Amino acid sequence: MTADAMPDGRDETPDERADRNWEELMQELRVMQTGTQILTGFLLAVAFQPRFAELDDVQRSLYVVLVLLAAAATALALAPVGLHRMLFAQRRKPELVRMTSRLLKANLIVVGAVTVGVTALILDVTIDRTSALIAAGIGVVVVFALWAGLPLMMRSRERDRR
User: How many Å apart are CA 65 and CA 116, to the nearest integer?
Assistant: First the structure.
């Protein structure tokens, strides 16, 4: 067995690294699926509420877009499981890890959009459209800052330390 060449202090083969990375991705997917299921359940229940008929065209359109995004998030979260089943025992785990990582990143964008959109829809219905738009703008900035800006800042600090 050859030790993995990555300079991270771990002495593992490429297969061991792929197995570890796969397990880490599965944990991330479990966390993401819980949030996605809660948001999707909320969205599906909204259509059956008496006040749903009172939504204006903008609110109803936003609702439909959010349901479609929630369905896309569910499909993205389940895709790695399907890939794993189809590629099981074919010694393609490193490739599977790379594709799952991409799917997870795409799903983060979709889940972020659903989260911001649900917040905007709730504020639009309960307060007013201006509050919804302000909250959506702030939500986009916060999601982007936490999910993209913070990791970039941490990478930059790590490079500066070296």
Answer: 12
